[in-house]
Structure prediction request, 540 residues.
Amino acid sequence: MSARPHKLINHPDAIVDEMLEGFCAAYSDIVQLTDDRLVTRAQPKAQGKVALVIGNGSGHEPAMLGWVGQGLFDVNIAGEIFTAPGPQRIVDGIRAADRGAGVLVCVSHHAGDRLNAELALELCAAEGIDDVEMVILYDDISSAPKGNEAERRGTAGLFFVWKLLGAFCEGSGDLAAAKALAEKVRDNTRSLTMSLSSCASPITGQVMFEMAADEMEIGMGLHGEVGMGRQKALSADATIDLMLPPILEDLPFAAGDEALVLLNNSGSLTLMELFVLYRRVAQRLAEAGITVYKSWLDAYATTQEMAGFALSLCRVDEELKALWDAPANGAYMKQV
Amino acid sequence: MTADELADLIERMAERVLAEREALNRLDAAIGDGDHGSSISGALALAMQEINMLEEPSLHAIWLTTAKALLNGMGGASGAIFGTFFLKGAAQLKDVERISQADMTELLQAGLAGVQARGRATVGDKTMVDALAPAVAAFAAAVDFPSAWRAAAGAAATGAESTRDMLARQGRAKYLGERALGHVDPGASAIALMFAAAADAYAQ
Prediction:
């Protein structure tokens, strides 16, 4: 499968601004675009609650724009395509988000996201802005071996952190507890990705990397980073049979566990394919004695038109299940 | 070196990187997302724009303005790293009107130390440090500005070229494994271009 070279854009330099304007116009009941290009809630959360901020490179929509809203993020700072925003913009986001009970800056672990968040926190300290913490989040088991979890990348499975942490912060003014909750969800989440295709960079129009038509790669990162190597493309069932066991072994998940399950479309997979894939996931989890509390199949974090998916599981207890069932209203994540 | 001379130097660096923008983009396309040339040339152009608007363009203000333009105009890991390079030495220039080659050596060394602490990269990791570290060492070993920039430019070029046969151990390319082999690191290449521009300025 080849990447689609022509994108319906106007000018590469204008993509991010025009995308933000369109998104905020479409969902003006949920979000608003500030003069300094921050996406904030249309109705701010209550004073005295921990605020949540995330910056990220653009090109992965609806992440993270679609996660601003009630029960989710307070502010999203969109960087350039595949490029984390610089520290001053993150500081601007922290100021805009603050509701008087501290701000937690979430970092989906990639070098640019981490370095700029670190610099932003140094700037906050220099300016006397207290009560700001950052939490480094990761889920991709292919990016570093077990034992080196802190070196792993953040991918689509952070979906669970966004929802559960968002629900927690809607009702809590305790910054340290919010950070601990984020780490708890992270430490119970595992993901593995696969891809059948490359995608075209919206800036250059060029294919990001080459992939043969009959190949697939397991463990590919959000930007085409190498995973566990290329192999001949397999059937849906055989692909799940290859991907699910290492996820289960890594945590490890055990018989009797309850889990949230995500099959995230990286871009151009069809829902039909996701349903066929999920059938096998459900079969294998039942065999393993793992109960699915809830599952989601859709495109929540994408890499342009890449044809692939992430399979993510999060082990939940009663606390996390209750947080999942709490209301959320983002443009691309709703829980009623 | 005076403030005027420093501003001129940074302008020449910006021009050189802009001239090689597409070449840097192509290097980045091989092992990254293909925009390194556009993003660094854009940030250096922003630095020049803001330096030209400074009411009191002191050495300190010019150095700090460059740092902020790279940090905020570039974004990503590259912006954080290149910006940190200028940010770390900036304090040394406070209330200073003229710097010697020895002063510049201290500035470059402070920047290098900041970059390595921030990025956790050492020589051999296939990053801009592979060009920057030998360049700073060569600069320090020289006795005056023209010979220092010339030696640094040569060392940076050799260092950048050495990344071709390296596996990446930091940055996004570290996840490319052997796919990164055979490609020069675009950040190291940008560093080599900046030192080459400085050497050319002092050769005239």
